[in-house]
Design goal:
The complex is a heterodimer. In chain A, 21% of the residues lie in helices and 45% in strands. Chain A is an alpha/beta fold. The longest helix of chain B has 11 residues, at 26-36. Chain B is globular. Classes of the chains: A alpha/beta, B alpha+beta.
Chain lengths: 152, 106
């Protein structure tokens, strides 16, 4: 199982983003550095959801927005650790659509269930595998880096 | 030109996040890139040699698929090429949990 380190502030921010966009899916990028068996996330970046036709159950981040996010990450000496999005009134579990549309091997996909406008469970899934043909999601352990070092 | 390699492809590019190539066009630059790093080819192209549908190419800040000459566009040493796999998803057409049991009729 992989590990994803988040600060409390980032954890709260990505969940708040989902509450603010409810009943639509929010999305964004996570920037950080690699560690053994995972990532340490040091920043989150909100992104626009271009799926305005079906934003309550689909998200898409514009590739041009990602070009700029990755450019800024590179300037800071960071990489893209993964992405986050919300599931309005659906579990924090990856869907067949999430897997089919996931292509960032080695990165984490963080999903927050937002039930009736309130953030509930947040889970993280690493896209494992070495190609499109054998990719699969594996659940990460999320470690909240604050004094109490919460882990779930 | 400078080619920016995204996180998921770096293991197939000797761990590099940027690679410099000398080429006259975008196609030639990709050819040079995959010649130096053959493992990248299957991640970028189909068996028929076409760019995979989820791979987006940006010449500086322009989507290559919308350039008049597309991959045949001429490039300069100052240009950059960003390789960006798509990011999308959602709960549409998926059952990530067990639906309620159907009601029976008496």
């Amino acid at each position: 199982m992989g590990i994803l380190h988040l600060t409390r502030a980032i954890y709260d921010e990505i969940r708040a983003h989902g509450e603010q966009t409810y009943p639509y899916e929010c999305c964004g990028a996570l920037l950080g550095t690699t560690i053994e068996n995972g990532w340490t996330v040091v920043a989150s970046v909100r992104a626009g959801n271009t799926r305005t036709d079906s934003a309550h159950n689909r998200y898409n981040i514009s590739p041009l927005e990602l070009v700029k996010i990755e450019r800024d990450a590179r300037r800071q000496g960071l990489g893209i650790a993964g992405f986050y999005h919300s599931h309005p009134d659906h579990p924090a579990q990856w869907s067949t659509t999430d897997l089919a549309e996931a292509h960032w091997l080695g990165c984490s996909y963080v999903i927050t269930a937002v039930a009736k406008g309130k953030a509930a469970q947040t889970n993280s899934f690493r896209l494992a595998g070495i190609s499109e043909e054998d990719k699969a999601f594996e659940q990460d352990t999320i470690v909240i880096d604050d004094e109490n070092k919460e882990q779930f | 030109m400078t080619i920016f390699i995204p996180t998921p492809l770096r293991p197939f590019a000797a761990g590099k996040d940027t690679i410099e190539v000398e080429a006259a066009t975008i196609s030639a630059a990709l050819e040079s890139l995959t010649a130096a790093h053959p493992d990248l080819r299957k991640h970028l192209f189909t068996g028929e040699g076409k760019l995979r549908a989820f791979v987006n190419l940006y010449l500086n800040d322009e989507d290559v698929r919308y350039l008049p000459a597309k991959e045949a566009t001429a490039i300069t040493a100052a240009d950059t090429l960003s390789i960006i796999p798509s990011i999308a998803g959602g709960v549409l057409a998926a059952r990530a949990y067990a639906p309620p049991a159907p009601k029976t009729m008496n």
